[in-house]
Amino acid sequence: QVHLVESGGGLVQAGGSLRLSCAPSGRIVEYYVMGWYRQAAWNERELVARITSDGSTNYKDSVKGRFTISRDNAKNAVYLQMNSLKPEDTAVYYCAADYGTLIGPNSDWGQGTQVTVAS
């Protein structure tokens, strides 16, 4: 498996913005799908947004209009621009990627980055 490295988390006030970045460490890979998941305390990990290599995107309903996922295929990097952040967005955010069409436990995952939104 390839190690994914995330950056960009932190503490922000409600209404603020953060931009998360993720890229593979080491060898060059060509993922088909890349995405961002999050896990809040005592909750299950959930999909936030995903993007395929041809630019097709999917978002969790509660982040539509506020978050934007994008990717740089040359770098196999994926980004998550988060605007109008709310306290309920507080979670550990994980980057994930797969060569196939679905992301699952056997896909490549990052170590997670904490996002905390203060009210």
Task: Break the fold down into its secondary structure elements and pairings.
Layout: E1 3-7, E2 10-13, E3 18-25, E4 33-39, E5 46-52, E6 57-59, E7 67-72, E8 77-82, E9 91-98, E10 108-109, E11 113-118
Parallel strand pairs: 2-11
Antiparallel strand pairs: 1-3, 3-8, 4-5, 4-9, 5-6, 7-8, 9-10, 9-11
Describe the structure in brief.
With 119 residues, the chain is an all-beta fold. Helix content is 0%, strand content 52%.
Task: Spell out the key features of this protein.
four-stranded antiparallel sheet; globular; mainly beta
Question: How would you characterize the overall build of this protein?
Answer:
The chain is mostly beta strands and 119 residues long. It contains no helices and 11 strands. The chain has strands at 3-7, 10-13, 18-25, 33-39, 46-52, 57-59, 67-72, 77-82, 91-98, 108-109, 113-118. The strands form 2 sheets. Strands 2, 4, 5, 6, 9, 10 and 11 form a 7-stranded mixed sheet that branches. A 4-stranded antiparallel sheet has the order 1-3-8-7, with no helix packed on it. The termini are far apart.
